[in-house]
Each structure stands twice: as structure tokens, then as C-alpha cells.
Amino acid sequence: MTERMAQAGAEVLVERVSKSFGRISALREASLHVEPGQAVVITGRSGSGKSTLLALVGGLEQPDAGRVVIDGRAIWREPHPARARREVVGFVFQRHLLLETLSAQTNVEVPLLGAGMRHAERRRRALELLDEVGLADRAEHVPARLSGGERQRVAVARALANEPRLLLADEPTGALDSVTSERILDLLFGLRDRLGMTMILVSYDSAIGARADRTVTIVDGLIHDHDAHDDARASAS
Amino acid sequence: MLSIIVTNLRRRPTRTVLTAAGIAVGVATIVALLSFTQGLQESASGFVHLGGSELGVFQANVSDPTTSVLPESMVGRLRRRPEVAQATPLLLIVEGIKRDPAAVVFGAQSDGFFTKQLVIVGGARPTSWQTEALVGDRLAAQLRLSPGSTLDVKGRAYRVAGVYHSGILFEDSGAVLGLAEAQRLIERPDEETNVIVRLSPGTRASAAARAIERDFPGTQAITTPEQALRAGANGTLISKAILVIVAIAIIVGVIGVMNTMAMSIAERRGELGLLSTVGWSPQRVATLILGEGIAVSILGAAGGLLLGVIGGDLLVRALGVSSYVSPSVTAWGLGRGLLVGVAIGVLGGIYPAWRVTRMTPLKALSGT
Ligand SMILES: Nc1ncnc2c1ncn2[C@@H]1O[C@H](COP(=O)(O)OP(=O)(O)O)[C@@H](O)[C@H]1O
Ligand SMILES: [Mg+2]
User: Fold this and answer.
1) Which of A194, B282, B307, B340 is the most buried (most CB within 10 A)?
2) For A52-84, what is each residue's pLDDT tens digit?
3) Which pTM value belongs to this model?
4) ipTM computed for the complex
5) Half-sphere exposure of residue B218, counting CA atoms within 13 Å on the CB side?
6) CATH match for A12-99+168-236 among 3.30.70.920, 3.40.50.2000, 3.40.640.10, 3.40.50.300
């Protein structure tokens, strides 16, 4: 196990961001501020704009209006958005999106390959990450030979490969049974506690909010920022 | 990167094999046709150098050199020219041998240089040119003829006196009769197909050809294989047809590969979007796709080379022209096939790869 407490969390600033797809307005002047190391859960109905918000935060899409700033960097405005993603963000999706021809280990190596890391170093790091998610003995398996929970664990290991300061998870347990879901959530929140990165987790299950520092609800592209637990505690004292 | 390319291709064998097969067919067509044209060139050069001559005089504007007709008086007039060392007339009979319609029968003077340069490898030269014939070693092998057996030409039986070898495909796949006997056989006395000429030392073939064509209007003097190919309207047609077919083969190959690559990319949008999401630059994603395209193309091209060599042979057999054309497989021909195959892969891969780099990762991820 590697302890990388030195790895700080990123600060996320979303300012009056709007995004439409054709005539569908997915987000309307959404604003959100997440402090370094915070774990925020975003809930809302299907189609309310949760994935869109996450994609904008992670620099997968460009906002129509407004600004997304991660640690002072506006990812989409940079000349190499892919590189900015690689340096700051780790993604976990509902579908594991593992490359089905590659072994678990190589799947974890994929982001490192994108960063141009050397082979031996890549291999060492991938095995270390698989160990971290409890799959040290599955390194050579292709996704088809792993269970749903195991695949999602590989996806988590892959998201951690580039030591992101911001972990974005879009319904990471949406395709899993309740027991497996709990294990994946334990893994994600445990990693956050240990590594200290900022985490934004999308879920339609508002019960998960109990694990988070703060819950945000989106309704039809509008953000309702609940009082965060610690904010509430802070104001109460 | 390379290992990912190899793994991707190996773990999706059906797609890899189908794509490679598409390319192989394109490359095979190209190689087969190129080896066929090359063979055509080489046999045309044999046609030019019949009997070891440097120049052949034919009637101009014929559909096919074998349909040329010249008067018998040509030979004497040619022989008197200073640039001509030796000249001898030939009468070509095509489709004269039923058992091998592609074989050409040469009517030649027994004392002309055409007959004299034939090396007898079995039996002897005929003693009576009215009843005996010589057969080339290839024809002899094909029809199982040997000295003493009978050769049927246009319904008339000749005794095989000897078997010869000259090294020229046309001649070795054919047979030789006396000129007078050949003229009598096809009822064309006083006529010949062409006159073959050996030039005096120091004479340039092209200059001699021009002088002869000037002094004998209505004739053409052939000195190069290209000329021989173009000499007849049919030859020109064949060359052009082959050019068109090669072009079509290349276009079909490119479209096939583009189609396969585009399909494979549509199928993998999610995967490619993921690569972009985890920080692969568009260039790196494009390199992966192009790399796969090129690797499949090399596989396909290699298979295509093999198919093409076999196909060239089949083509010649199917057309029944093995007496005129022996497909010639050259390193350059194969190299070109391989080059075209890889070029197809690159061309076919570029557009889909470019498309991928234009996609935003989210579109790719949500699309599947
Ligand atoms: N790539 C897209 N193209 C067109 N419409 C989209 C696209 N992505 C999302 N939408 C639309 O935007 C709205 C919000 O979608 P999304 O953010 O995925 O919601 P959620 O994740 O909360 O279910 C929906 O109406 C959806 O149909
Ligand atoms: Mg969603």
C-alpha cells in the first residue's frame, strides 16, 4: 500500500455555467464551489443534468457560458485539454469502460501510457494500484473474466493511476447490486480519506449523502446547494 | 503502444481477419495483374526478338500482329538494304494445333536464320520439309510428343523429326513447318506474316526501323516490347484494360479498408472516448487507430501477395494464353503490391482517425 497523504485535493469552482444540447438546456447557470479535499455527493433525477455537470467539471465538455476552474486552471481553455485532464482528474463511470481486449493490469496502465511513462515503471505502478483496490491476484485477467464489482475496482484503480487531485465518479455503483455497491463506496470514500483528494460523486441514491461532507441536488439543470454538514456545524457553533 | 495494437488485433481475430482479407483481395488483384502485364511485356519482347532478330517488319494498322500479311517480294528487297545483315520471312499459323489452340505454328524457310538458330535437343532436323515438322520442347512436354510421333496441324499429320529449344516462350511452345508447306496448308501462297531482320553491325535498330517504314509504306518495323504490345489494336486495348482494372482494384481496396476502419471505430467510440478521458492526446489516439490500420494492412498485403502470385497463374490459364504469357513475378512487382497494401491501410485509416480526434470525449462515451 502506498500512502500519499502529500497529494492535496483540488479546489473546484463552477461559476454560472450553462450547457445546452440542441434545444435541451441541460444546465442553467449552475454554480458550485468545492473546497480542497471535500467529498460532495450530487443527486437528482435522471436527466436533471448531473452527468453534464460532472463532464464540465472534468473538462470533457466545453460550457456554453460560465467558467469551470480547477486549482486556478480553466481546463477547456488550455491548449491541451487531454493533458490537463490527465494531470488533475480521475474518472469513474457507471459503466466500467475497461478495454475488453486488455488485461486488468494493462487497463490500469492506459492513462500512464498516455502520460508517456516507461514500461517497467508503468507495470510497477499498475500492480501497486491493483493491490490497493484488492485485486493483486487478478492482474492478468481480461474484463470478461472479472465480476461486475471487480471490474469497477479496476476502473477505480485506473482513475487513480495519474494521482489525481480530483476524483469524479458518475453513478459508480449504478450497475451493481447493493452489497457490491457498498463495497465500492467503502473503497472510494476510504481512498479519499487516505489520499486526501477532492471527490465529487453523482448518485440518484440520496442515502449516500450521509457519507459525504455535502450533498447537492440538481433539478432540471438548476443547482440546489444544501447546507453542507460541516458548514451547518460551523454555523451552529 | 505496439503491444496494445498487437493485443487488440489478436483478441479480435474475426474483425482482424475480415479486414485483412478485404485488403488481401485488393492487393492480390493488383499483384496478379501486374505480374500478368509484366509477363505480357516479356512475351512481347520474345515476339520482337523471334529467331534472335533485332527487328520485325509487319503490316501496319492490323488488329493483332499475327493477322499481318506481307507480299513474298518483301524479303528480297529488305535483304538488299545496307543496314540489313540477314532477313527471313515467317508465316504464323494460330489455332493450328487443336490439342493446344494457343500454340503458334511458324512457317519458316529451312535455310533461314530462324530455323538455323533452333537448338535440336532430341531427334534431328527434318529431311523432308513437306511431311516433317519440328516441335518446341514446351509443346512437346505438354502434348507428350517425341521424335517419331505425329503432330496434327489444321487436319494434316506431320511426323515429328526433332524437338528444339530456343529460349523464347513463343517458339518453345510452338512448332515449325517449312514455309512453302505452311503456305500450301492455309492456302496463302506468296504471302507471309512478317519478316524478321538481323541488322548489320553498328546499325541502330530505331534508325533502321524508321528508314524501313519510310521506304515501305504500309509496314511497321517493331523493335521494342512496348511497340509490340501497341502494334495491334488488341494489344493497346489489353494494356488500357489492365490499367483500368488496376485502378479499380486500388479504389475498391481503399473503400473496403475505409469502410472497415470506420465501422471498427464506430463500434469503439466508447473505448476511444475513454482513452481521451484518461488523458490520451488526440494524436496518440489517432496513432493507435492508424497503427492498427497499418498492421492489418501489412497482414492483408502479405496474404494478398501470395494470392496474387497464384491468381496470376490462374488468370493465364483461364485465358488460355499460357503459350504467349508466363506471369512474371518480380521483386519490384511484389514490392509495389506491398506498398499499395500499406498505402491502402494508411489512407483508409486517416479519415476515421481524424474523425475520432474531433470527437469530444463525452459524445464518444454517451454514444455507446
Ligand atoms: N450528448 C448529449 N446530446 C444531447 N443531449 C444530451 C447529451 N447529454 C445529455 N443530454 C441531455 O441533457 C439532459 C441532462 O442529461 P444528463 O446530464 O446526462 O442527466 P443525468 O446525468 O442527471 O441523468 C438530458 O435531457 C439529456 O437528454
Ligand atoms: Mg447521468
Assistant:
1) B340
2) 999 999 988 889 999 999 998 887 777 887 788
3) 0.69
4) 0.84
5) 5
6) 3.40.50.300
